[in-house]
Amino acid sequence: MILHLTDLSDEPLQSQIVRQVRANILAGDLAPGYNLPSIRALAREQKVSVITVQRAYETLLRQELIHSRRGKGFFVSTISNEQKRDIARQHLFASLQKPLLAALSEGLSEENVLAVVREIIKSETRKAEA
Amino acid sequence: MILHLTDLSDEPLQSQIVRQVRANILAGDLAPGYNLPSIRALAREQKVSVITVQRAYETLLRQELIHSRRGKGFFVSTISNEQKRDIARQHLFASLQKPLLAALSEGLSEENVLAVVREIIKSETRKAEA
DNA sequence: CAAACTGTATATATTGCGTATGTACAATAG
DNA sequence: CTATTGTACATACGCAATATATACAGTTTG
């Protein structure tokens, strides 16, 4: 598992860990049962505090994306591809609700909004191809 | 101008003021030149601190949606409908970039994403009709 | 002019979050 | 037993968001 952490970003380290591990799990890059690095090993490797990693793993635990066994480590939970897609959809739904409501109340039409969404997706998929 | 402020929300008071005034201006409900309530009057009316209102107005000033004249008050800036739509589009673009990138990296397809967007818009326009 | 309103500037206090440190305890692997 | 794992707690520091109070500067109104 490869993580890219930076404190140049305004995004907290914990949040970066959660976001990247989460994406790896939901996209299927980390199979169910995969043994995640221990909080101490990851902290050492990424040069962050043990607590920072622990808080990140706690968040993933609450979301039931991983589970832990005392003395053994953290492991990716067993989730079907359908469940993964539903989780990602619900996550997206929650994160888009306020911005979309704001855009509508600022006078944008449904077509305006969809155009912006398509524009962002196009630019992102171009990046991914490169 | 009608504002609905609540401290039950997790959204800061300043932010609520900015968001609502901003929406009123961009949607055309507040015409250019409109004389906004003074910071003291609005603070009294909404039972919030004068500074809270001042900070909110400062944000709107920085975004050039309003301007001020010492001793006279705050006024809605002169902006064309085209400019308003562009501002709203740019605002939406900025607020959607991270969530959409996250969704794609979590394995959702463009169609998955557009479906979620349409779903939210439909539920919101239904509310607005009621 | 004088009073009552405007916006502006500054200093200060409080709160909460992110982050970090240290210590101790519990379970597993070798 | 020893080393490693996860877990729990108390503590502390920095920083940004938030809020309060006070004083200063320009405009309107009577």
Question: Can you tag this structure with a few keywords?
Answer:
homodimer; 130 residues; mainly alpha; three-stranded antiparallel beta sheet; elongated; DNA-binding
Give structural notes.
The structure is a homodimer of 130-residue chains. The radius of gyration of chain A is 17 Å and the shape is elongated. The longest helix of chain A has 25 residues, at 81-105. Chain A starts with 12 loop residues before the first helix and ends with a helix. Chain A has helices spanning 13-26, 39-46, 50-62, 81-105, 110-129, and strands spanning 35-36, 66-69, 73-76. In chain A, 62% of the residues lie in helices and 8% in strands. In chain A, strands 1-3-2 form a three-stranded antiparallel sheet, covered by helices on one side. By secondary structure, chain A is mainly alpha-helical. Chain A folds into two domains: 13-76, Arc Repressor Mutant, subunit A; 81-129, no CATH class. In chain A, helix 1 (13-26) packs across helix 3 and helix 2 crosses helix 3. Chain A is built from five helices and three strands, in the order H-E-H-H-E-E-H-H. The A-B interface holds A 19, 22-23, 26-28, 84-85, 88-89, 91-93, 95-97, 99-108, 110, 112-114, 116-121, 124-125, 128 and B 19, 22-23, 26-28, 84-85, 88-89, 91-93, 95-97, 99-108, 110, 112-114, 116-121, 124-125, 128. Chain A binds a DNA duplex (30 and 30 nucleotides) through helix 1, helix 2 and helix 3.
